[in-house]
Specification:
By secondary structure, the chain is mainly beta. The protein has two helices and 22 strands. The strands form three sheets. Strands 12, 13, 14, 15, 16, 17, 18, 19, 20 and 21 form a ten-stranded antiparallel β-sheet that branches. Strands 1, 2, 3, 4, 5, 6, 7, 8 and 9 form a nine-stranded mixed β-sheet that branches. Strands 10-11-22 form a three-stranded antiparallel β-sheet, with no helix packed on it. The radius of gyration is 36 Å and the shape is globular.
Length: about 350
């Protein structure tokens, strides 16, 4: 290029002259134009520097992608929440994995706009992750880390492939410091000239806990050709509305690998802010459950659950859940007790 004009070598000028002469023939106009463009590029005219002999890079085939992989390696979140979880002083958590479980005060948490918790206490999920069974509101958040890199404040990362069933089940919730108010209210009165204690008892049924949200059971070991993920979990529990320790009755039904396992709940809750366990829920190879009362907002209660279930074939599954608790209407019953050692007045 000189003085803003393109200069050609003598050889190129020769071919261009031939091209001009050929253009006089109408039938060859189209072919000559194509030929001249090729010659201009080959002889140093305007255009890119691509060498026609260079190999052409392959074009990505969308069909080559794993059909289970989100486009472009984007994290996947399956499920939804009605409101973000609100972490506070009473917030607690449960984390269950093939290597064990952890529970306690929720010191830190992070939740995506889609509702997935990626930080639960000292557990963090990163990478191209897959979070399933997402559910929750301001009072709880539940889900299952099925794929990604799981790290704690110390120790190496645990890589979840998303193909072998290994998973971390989390549950963040709001704890309670007191049981529901005791139903008994008593006062000392004089009745028929004799001191008495008059008590009003509420004939209230127990807290009935049903429904709610559960993560799908995931396989941890044992059995022969087990399914990697179970199908469903259901349960019902009744919690006594009075007394010191609150008595618990009911069971949890875990369906996995075409088999059914019925797990009992602990007999009682000794404290509102402590978790009660039964069986071998805390071991790495047994069955059992752990339960604790939780706040559900507007004065309501919930029952949070961790479980491990070993099927008749020997396959072991784990998961977490939360059931909603409610009480039906009640009636008032008045009881009167004469106080001992007191004579009627006037005697």
């Amino acid at each position: 290029m000189a003085n803003g004009k393109t200069e050609f070598s003598p050889v190129c000028q020769f071919f261009i002259i031939i091209h001009v002469s050929i253009m006089k023939k109408t039938l060859l106009i189209t072919s000559c134009i194509a030929a001249s463009l090729f010659l201009l590029q080959a002889c140093g005219g305007d255009g890119d520097d691509t060498n026609p002999s260079d190999p052409v890079p392959p074009i990505a085939n969308p069909d080559d992608k794993d059909p289970g992989e989100p486009p472009g390696g984007v994290p996947r979140e399956q499920g939804s929440v009605s409101a973000p979880f609100v972490q506070g002083d009473a917030s607690r958590y449960i984390m269950v994995s093939p290597s064990g479980q952890s529970f306690g005060v929720l010191s830190s948490s992070q939740q995506t706009p889609g509702g997935a918790m990626t930080t639960v206490g000292d557990y963090q999920l990163a990478g191209t992750y897959d979070v399933q069974d997402i559910n929750g509101d301001a009072s709880f958040a539940i889900g299952r880390w099925a794929k990604g890199s799981v790290t704690r404040d110390s120790g190496p990362a645990d890589m979840l492939s998303g193909t072998d069933g290994r998973a971390y089940h989390y549950l963040a919730y709001q704890g309670v410091s007191e049981f529901p108010p005791d139903i008994n209210s008593c006062s000392d009165v004089i009745r028929d000239g004799r001191p008495s204690r008059l008590c009003t008892a509420i004939g209230m049924p127990p807290l009935r806990c049903t429904g709610g949200s559960f993560t799908k059971p995931t396989y941890t070991g044992g059995g022969s050709k087990p399914a990697l993920t179970g199908s469903s979990v259901t349960g019902v529990a009744d919690i006594s509305p009075y007394g010191g320790p609150r008595f618990v009755s009911g069971s949890l039904t875990v369906n996995a690998n075409g088999e059914t396992v019925n797990l009992s709940f602990p007999d009682s809750l000794s404290s509102p802010d402590a978790m009660a366990f039964t069986g071998q829920a805390l071991t790495s190879n047994g069955s059992g459950t752990g339960v604790q009362l939780a706040a559900a907002g507007d004065g309501a209660y919930a029952l949070v659950i961790t479980y491990a279930a070993v099927t008749p074939s020997g396959a072991r599954y784990i998961g977490v859940g939360r059931m909603n608790c409610s009480q039906e209407s009640f009636t008032l019953v008045t009881l009167e007790k004469r106080l001992p050692g007191q004579a009627p007045l006037g005697e």
